[in-house]
C-alpha cells in the first residue's frame, strides 16, 4: 500500500497534467485540482488493508496459473497423441502405403482407395459448397432487404452451423441417397458434406464482405458503376482472401468428417479408386475407423500411418488458409 | 417559409435545379422543401451546422441517397430540364453525368492507374486509356507527382494526393457536374490549399457543388453560397452577399461565428 501511494506521488509530480488517462473524475473537478492538496478521495488512498491486498494478489496469481494449466493440458494431450501416432505409424509410411489398396493382409494394405476418395470428396465438396456459400453470403450482405425474413434466415444459418454432423448424415441419406437415388456415391457424400459446411462458409464470407469498407462501394457507385460492377471489381476482390480462408477451414472440417459418411453408407473396404462422381468410395477417416476396429496390432499401425497422412492433408490446408490471411493483412 | 433567393443567374444556364425537394430518413425529415438553382460553370457552396442536411441535399443531386435504406425523396431535381427522379431515369446513368468526391479520400486498394481508369472501364470506354488517365491526373494537378509511380498502390500516396486522385478518378468519367462533400476536411492546410486551387481551376469546365464546414473556404472558392439550417434553406445568394450583407439574421449569426 505504501508503494502505491509512493507511485501516485511520483506520477502526480512528473505528469502534473489534468488529462491523465484513467482519471475518471468529471471535468469540472479536474479543472479545480491544482488548487487542492492531495485529495483524500484519490483512488489509491482509500484502498484496503495490506492483508486484503495480498489476498487479492494471490487470487490473481491463482487464476493466472489455472489458465496456464488449461493451456498446458491441451498442448500436452496433443503432444502425447502425436508422439504415439508417429511412433506407431511412421514405419508404415512409404510409397507402397500410398499406392496400395486396402487388403486383408496387413503387409500389403495401403490407403490408395481412401486417399483418392478423400481427394474426390474434397474437390466435389469444394465445387458445390464454394459457389453456393459465397452466393448466399453475397445475397444476404449486398442484395437482401433488411426484413424479418432476412433476419430469420440469418439466425437459421448461425444455428445450422451448430447442428451435429450425424444429423446431416441422416438428411443426406434420405435426400440424396434415397430420394435423388444417387446411391452411396461420391456425389451423395459430397452433397451431404456441402450441406454440413455451407453455414460455415456463408458466415465466413459474410464476415469478409462486411469488412470491406462502405466507402469503397460508395466510390464505385459514384463513378457510375452498377451494383454488379462494384461487387465484381471492388468488393469481391477485397473480400476474397477472407472468403477463401473461411472456405479452406470449412473444407478441412469436411475432410475429417466420418459420421455423416457412415450414415449415407460409404464403404469401409474399398479396393478401387472412384472413376466418377457416381462411384462408391471410402475416405481416410473411414479407413482409419475400419482399421482401428480390428483386433490385430498390424492394422492399428496402418491406422496410425493413415492418421499421419490425414493430418498432413489438414495441416497443408490450414497452412494455405494462414498464408492467404497473412497476405491479405499485409495488403490492407 | 421565407426563403430568400437573391441569386442572379443571368448569363449562365442552370445546371441543376432543385424544386421543393424534401428528403426523409424513416420518419425524420432531413431536407425540408428546398428549392435552389445551380448555375453552369460556377461553384456553389452549401454551408450550415452539422446535421443541417447539406450532405443529404448534395447526395440528392446524383441519387446517392438511393443507396440509403429508408430514404424517401419528394420534389424534383432538374438536370437539363429532366427530372433525375423520374421513373425511367437510371441512377447509374445519373452518376455517370454527375460525379462525386467524398469527405474522406477513398481510393480503391489498387494502383494509381487502375483507380483512375475504373470509371471509364465500367462505362465501357474504348479510347486511349493511357491518355485519358494522364489527362485526368493532370486535370487534378497530380500528374507531376505520380507520373513515375502509376503502378504503385494508391495507398502509398499521402492523404492530399489520395484526395486529388479521387478527384482525378471522378474527372476521368467526364462528368458535367462534380459534387464534393467536404473534400478537404480530412486534410492538412497545405493539401487543402491545393484542393482549393484545383477547384478554382476546375470551374472553367465543370459545375461544382461543394459542402463545406469551413466558412473561409466557402468564401474563398465559391461564387454562390447556400446556408442551410435544420433541413431548411435559409438563404441562398452570391457568396459576397451571404458573407457581407446577408438578409437573414440567422445567416449573419452563422457566418460571423455566433452559432453553429
The chain pair forming the largest interface, with residue counts per chain, is: A-B, 20 and 26 residues
Contiguous uncertain segments of 5+ residues of chain B: none
What does the largest sheet of chain A look like? none
Distance between the termini of chain A: 47 Å
Determine the number of helices of chain B (DSSP H or I, runs of at least 4 residues): 10
> Helix proportion of residues of chain A, in percent?
over 70%
Average residue-wise pLDDT of chain B: 89
Low-confidence segments of chain A: 1-30
Strand arrangement in the largest pleated sheet of chain B: 1-11-10-4-9-8-7
Q: Give the CA-based shape of chain A.
A: globular
Question: How large a portion of the residues of chain B is in β-strands, by DSSP E?
Answer: 25-35%
Q: What characterizes the major β-sheet of chain B?
A: 7 strands, mixed
Instruction: Report the radius of gyration of chain A as a whole number of Å.
Output: 29 Å
Strand content of chain A: under 5%
Estimated structural class of chain B: alpha/beta
Q: Helix/strand-derived class of chain A?
A: mainly alpha
Shape of chain B: globular
Written description of the protein model:
- The complex is a heterodimer of chains A (332) and B (260).
- Chain A is built from 13 helices and no strands.
- Chain A is mainly α.
- Chain A is 72% helix and 0% strand.
- The N terminus of chain A is likely disordered.
- The longest helix of chain A is centred in the N-terminal third of the chain and has 40 residues.
- By secondary structure, chain B is α/β, with parallel strands linked by helices.
- Chain B is 33% helix and 27% strand.
- In chain B, the strands form two sheets. Chain B has a seven-stranded mixed β-sheet with strand order 1-11-10-4-9-8-7, sandwiched between helices. A four-stranded antiparallel β-sheet of chain B has the order 3-2-5-6, covered by helices on one side.
- In chain B, helix 7 links the parallel strand 8 and strand 9.
- The two termini of chain B are 21 Å apart.
- At the A-B interface, helix 9 and helix 10 of A face helix 2, strand 7, helix 3 and helix 6 of B.
Amino acid at each position: 500500500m505504501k508503494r502505491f501511494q509512493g507511485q501516485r506521488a511520483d506520477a502526480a509530480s512528473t505528469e502534473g497534467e489534468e488529462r491523465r488517462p484513467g482519471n475518471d473524475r468529471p471535468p469540472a473537478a479536474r479543472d479545480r485540482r491544482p488548487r487542492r492538496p492531495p485529495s483524500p478521495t484519490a483512488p489509491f488512498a482509500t484502498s484496503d488493508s495490506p492483508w486484503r491486498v495480498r489476498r487479492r494478489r494471490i487470487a490473481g496469481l491463482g487464476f493466472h496459473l489455472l489458465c496456464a494449466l488449461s493451456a498446458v493440458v491441451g498442448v500436452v494431450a496433443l503432444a502425447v497423441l502425436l508422439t504415439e501416432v508417429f511412433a506407431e505409424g511412421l514405419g508404415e509410411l512409404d510409397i507402397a502405403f500410398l499406392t496400395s489398396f486396402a487388403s486383408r493382409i496387413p503387409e500389403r494394405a495401403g490407403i490408395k482407395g481412401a486417399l483418392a476418395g478423400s481427394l474426390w470428396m474434397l474437390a466435389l465438396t469444394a465445387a458445390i459448397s464454394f459457389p453456393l456459400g459465397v452466393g448466399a453470403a453475397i445475397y444476404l450482405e449486398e442484395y437482401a432487404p433488411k426484413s424479418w425474413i432476412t433476419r430469420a434466415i440469418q439466425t437459421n444459418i448461425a444455428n445450422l452451423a451448430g447442428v451435429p454432423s450425424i444429423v446431416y448424415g441422416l438428411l443426406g441419406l434420405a435426400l440424396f441417397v434415397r430420394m435423388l437415388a444417387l446411391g452411396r456415391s461420391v456425389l451423395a457424400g459430397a452433397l451431404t458434406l456441402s450441406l454440413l459446411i455451407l453455414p460455415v462458409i456463408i458466415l465466413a464470407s459474410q464476415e469478409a464482405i462486411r469488412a470491406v469498407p462502405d466507402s469503397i462501394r460508395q466510390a464505385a457507385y459514384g463513378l457510375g458503376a452498377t451494383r454488379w460492377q462494384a461487387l465484381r471489381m471492388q468488393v469481391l476482390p477485397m473480400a476474397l482472401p477472407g472468403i477463401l480462408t473461411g472456405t479452406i477451414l470449412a473444407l478441412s472440417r469436411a475432410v475429417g468428417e466420418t459420421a455423416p459418411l457412415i450414415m449415407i453408407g460409404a464403404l469401409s473396404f474399398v479396393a478401387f479408386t472412384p472413376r466418377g462422381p457416381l462411384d462408391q468410395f471410402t475416405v481416410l477417416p473411414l479407413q482409419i475407423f475400419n482399421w482401428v476396429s480390428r483386433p490385430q496390432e498390424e492394422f492399428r499401425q496402418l491406422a496410425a500411418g493413415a492418421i499421419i497422412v490425414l493430418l498432413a492433408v489438414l495441416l497443408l490446408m490450414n497452412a494455405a488458409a494462414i498464408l492467404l490471411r497473412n497476405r491479405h493483412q499485409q495488403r490492407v | 417559409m421565407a426563403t430568400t433567393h437573391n441569386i442572379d443567374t443571368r448569363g449562365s444556364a442552370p445546371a441543376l435545379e432543385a424544386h421543393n425537394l424534401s428528403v426523409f430518413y424513416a420518419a425524420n425529415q432531413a431536407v425540408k422543401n428546398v428549392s435552389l438553382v445551380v448555375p453552369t460553370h460556377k461553384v456553389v457552396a452549401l454551408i450550415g451546422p452539422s446535421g443541417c442536411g447539406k450532405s443529404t441535399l448534395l447526395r440528392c443531386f446524383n441519387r446517392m441517397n438511393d443507396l440509403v435504406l429508408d430514404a424517401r425523396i419528394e420534389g424534383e431535381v432538374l438536370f437539363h430540364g429532366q427530372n433525375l427522379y423520374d421513373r425511367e431515369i437510371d441512377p447509374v446513368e445519373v452518376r455517370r453525368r454527375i460525379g462525386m468526391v467524398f469527405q474522406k479520400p477513398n481510393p480503391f486498394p489498387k494502383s494509381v492507374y487502375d483507380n483512375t481508369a475504373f470509371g471509364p472501364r465500367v462505362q465501357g470506354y474504348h479510347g486511349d486509356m493511357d491518355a485519358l488517365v494522364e489527362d485526368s491526373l493532370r486535370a487534378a494537378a497530380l500528374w507531376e507527382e505520380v507520373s513515375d509511380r502509376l503502378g504503385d498502390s494508391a495507398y502509398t500516396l499521402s492523404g492530399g494526393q489520395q484526395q486529388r486522385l479521387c478527384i482525378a478518378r471522378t474527372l476521368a468519367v467526364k462528368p458535367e457536374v462534380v459534387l464534393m462533400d467536404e473534400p478537404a476536411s480530412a486534410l492538412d492546410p497545405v493539401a487543402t490549399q491545393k484542393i482549393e486551387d484545383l477547384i478554382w481551376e476546375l470551374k472553367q469546365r465543370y459545375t461544382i457543388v461543394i459542402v463545406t464546414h469551413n466558412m473561409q473556404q466557402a468564401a474563398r472558392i465559391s461564387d454562390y453560397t447556400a446556408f442551410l439550417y435544420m433541413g431548411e434553406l435559409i438563404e441562398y445568394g452570391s457568396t459576397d452577399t451571404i458573407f457581407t450583407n446577408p438578409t437573414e439574421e440567422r445567416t449573419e449569426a452563422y457566418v460571423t461565428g455566433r452559432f453553429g
